[in-house]
Amino acid sequence: VLIAIGRDACTRNIGLDTIGVKINEKNGKVPVNDEEQTNVPYVYAIGDILDGKLELTPVAIQAGRLLAQRLYGGSSRKCDYINVPTTVFTPLEYGCCGFPEEKAIEEYGKQNLEVYHSLFWPLEWTVPGRDNNTCYAKIICNKQDNNRVIGLHVLGPNAGEVTQGFAAAIKCGLTKELLDETIGIHPTCAEVFTTLDITKASGQDITQKGC
């Protein structure tokens, strides 16, 4: 039995209350604004201690670097906590970047989104005859912004490698049209994102009959 209990924010006994820094009493984490500034203007917080932010080491490193540049280097760049490529390294990997579908609906409204999705069959699964409808790819597009891709999700082999590559494209403003114009490398798992043509709203069957 594996129990994932998460991390404990040890903030209650370090004197934050003495200087008036507020914490979330439920989890001990620290609320901040979009510049990692707490309610006390001269106190900043970064990393896993942030309330509502991702608990990922690369995120903390990036946020710390950008904070230092803003405080001492005259920069104005802020950490992007939305377009963060993330992977769950389960036996069948899951990777994502950008908004989950539920959060995208909250942010933009369902009527302003188009979701494209498909099941797919990795080449290495064809010889052993593994289920050809286990892997899944999905993108979420903002119709009001030139169908810009605001969420990408993939369940399949090497999902982390696939997600890392597309994350850079998403940061550059990837759109559905650009994906459609991209020539896929055949036969790869990532290729599926260049051929997505079934929308979730259409209700069409996305099961695969072959490779």
TrEMBL record:
The FAD/NAD(P)-binding domain, residue ranges:
1-64
Origin: domain of life: Eukaryota
Q: Which InterPro entries match?
A: FAD/NAD-bd_sf (IPR036188), FAD/NAD-binding_dom (IPR023753), FAD/NAD-linked_Rdtase_dimer_sf (IPR016156), GSHR/TRXR-like (IPR046952), Pyr_nucl-diS_OxRdtase_dimer (IPR004099)
Which GO terms of the cellular component aspect does the record hold? cytosol; mitochondrion
Q: Which GO terms describe its biological process?
A: cell redox homeostasis; cellular response to oxidative stress; glutathione metabolic process
Instruction: Print the keywords alphabetically.
Output: Disulfide bond, FAD, Flavoprotein, NADP, Oxidoreductase, Redox-active center
| Annotated GO MF terms | flavin adenine dinucleotide binding; glutathione-disulfide reductase (NADPH) activity
Provide the Pyridine nucleotide-disulphide oxidoreductase dimerisation domain boundaries.
Answer: 84-195
Named cofactor requirement(s): FAD
Q: Which family does it belong to?
A: Belongs to the class-I pyridine nucleotide-disulfide oxidoreductase family.
- This protein's name: TRXR3 reductase
> What organism does the UniProt record list as the source?
Grantiella picta
